[in-house]
Each structure stands twice: as structure tokens, then as C-alpha cells.
Design goal:
The protein is of the alpha+beta class. Helices cover 22% and strands 24% of the residues. It is globular. Adenosine monophosphate binds at residues 39, 50, 62, 64-66, 74, 119, 125-128.
């Protein structure tokens, strides 16, 4: 195997989720990593800013950049799942965990009434393919 192909295949930064083929000048085709990070991956990595309202080992919550209510927070799990449609028996606890975090957040904020929504897939209005829970309330944060 060509040394460069080996480097790409075994590089620790190699993306296991997604690959694409690229043709090099010598005619050989190599597999290249493709970064398919969503905007929420970047917020989680602090690569782009967000108005974070709460965080723990499992969840990050931040203000929606285009709020649809006086309070509009997004809760995302730190373990990546693209959508409710991709939840498996191994990750089935994640939606419930997000709901519990939202419930705790509401209690801490003294917010009595709120809506929780998951958009599922493009047809369900999901634009960012990183599972997230919308928390909307007519009540404002403290
Ligand atoms: P959804 O349509 O369920 O995928 O919701 C994605 C939400 O992410 C939308 O309500 C957007 O306004 C919100 N959003 C997109 N980019 C950002 C960002 N950089 N910071 C905060 N919220 C964002």
C-alpha cells in the first residue's frame, strides 16, 4: 500500500462516519476523510459561540439564535445522535434524558409552562441533523 494511503486510512483523525474517494495525479484512488460536523458539533466544541444557559457531563443547552418564543432553548446530548429517527435501543435513553434536563432547567428558572418539541427529519422540519430538544416558553428566563 502506498504510504500516503496508509496514512489516511490509519490516521487517528480519520472520520469513521463518512468517507469520500479522491483521485490523485498518479491515477490511484484514495479514501479521504470528510468532516460532516453540524453547527451543533461546533457549538459543543466551542468552535463557534452560543449563548449557553446550562451544561453538565451529558447535555449542553443554549439559546436558539432565531427564537420562536420569549424563551427558546435547545438541549443537545453530548453523545451524538443525528435525529430521533436514528435512536436505537442503545441510545433510547437520550430523548428522555433531554426531557429531564429541560424539566430541571424549567424548575430552576421558575418556568411553569413550556412546550418541548423534537423535529424529526427534513419532512418534520429538522434543519440541523444533530438530535435536539426545543424548549419554548412565553415566560422569560430569570
Ligand atoms: P430544527 O429545525 O429542529 O433543526 O432546529 C434547528 C434550530 O437551530 C433552529 O431553530 C435554528 O434557529 C437554530 N440554530 C441554528 N443555528 C444556530 C446557532 N448557531 N445557535 C443557536 N441556534 C441555532
Amino acid at each position: 500500500m502506498h504510504w500516503f494511503a496508509a496514512l489516511l486510512l490509519y490516521c487517528p483523525f480519520f472520520c469513521i462516519n463518512c468517507q469520500s474517494a479522491a483521485k490523485f495525479p498518479n491515477g490511484l484512488i484514495y479514501t479521504l476523510p470528510v468532516t460532516e460536523q453540524t453547527i451543533f458539533h461546533k457549538i459543543l466544541a466551542r468552535a463557534i459561540p452560543a449563548a449557553i444557559v446550562t451544561e453538565d457531563d451529558e447535555v449542553l443547552a443554549f439559546k436558539d439564535i432565531h427564537p420562536k418564543a420569549p424563551t427558546h432553548i435547545l438541549f443537545i446530548p453530548k453523545h451524538f445522535v443525528a435525529s430521533i429517527a436514528d435512536v436505537t435501543p442503545e441510545t433510547a435513553h437520550i430523548p428522555g434524558m433531554l426531557i429531564l434536563k429541560a424539566q430541571k432547567f424549567a424548575a430552576e428558572q421558575g418556568i411553569a409552562g413550556y412546550k418541548l418539541t423534537f423535529h424529526v427529519g427534513k419532512g418534520g422540519g429538522q434543519e440541523v441533523m444533530y438530535l435536539h430538544l426545543h424548549f419554548l416558553s412565553e415566560e422569560k428566563l430569570k
